[in-house]
Specification:
169 residues, alpha/beta, Glutaredoxin, 7-stranded mixed β-sheet, globular
Length: 169
């Protein structure tokens, strides 16, 4: 049954990607969102982008079935720890249909940043994802500064340099 759920999620996500015409781009304002917090959020509280106004925010879309997501989480946690004091925050938005799948992933890959849940992909649709994982580095004004599709070790240094620059502004 779990394999069927993952297949269905992959199929729906693929159709969603094919239907989106243009990804959110650098220089555009990030769409606001408010989603249930499922980890590292106050009990029963939503995670809303507006809560992080004035911070540099890395909005990361992920799912438990995403192989590159497994490699990206330790890097994101390290960046969160390193730059958190300078006004940097990671918000990870899970796209699994079942919350339990997200929790199992998080048990294996624990992090300290907030995890939101978007099982229907509504916020993912507003951000017009083109792959998994997809992330958007926002400046303190909520403008998209950098778009990351997939996860590649070679890109990690450029992402960190952008975070470092934005946290100093």
């Amino acid at each position: 049954m779990k394999r069927f759920s993952q297949s269905l999620t992959t199929m729906v996500f693929g159709l969603f990607l094919a239907a989106s015409t243009q990804a959110l781009e650098t220089g555009e304002d990030a769409p606001p969102f408010s989603l249930p917090g499922i980890e590292n959020a106050a009990e029963g509280q939503a995670i809303a982008l507006e809560q992080y106004q004035g911070k540099v925010v890395y909005v990361d879309f992920w799912a438990s079935w995403c192989g590159p997501c497994r490699r990206s989480f330790p890097k994101l946690e390290a960046l969160h720890q390193k730059y958190g004091e300078q006004g940097f925050e990671v918000i990870a938005i899970n796209l699994d249909e079942q919350e339990a799948d997200a929790h199992k992933f998080l048990d294996e890959h624990p992090v300290s940043f907030p995890i939101a849940w978007d099982p229907e992909g509504k916020v993912a649709g507003e951000y017009q994802l083109k792959g998994m994982p997809s992330a958007f580095l926002l400046d303190r004004d909520g403008t998209v500064h950098h778009v990351v599709v997939g996860f590649n070790e070679k890109d990690a240094a450029a992402i960190e340099a952008a975070i470092n620059q934005l946290t100093k502004e």
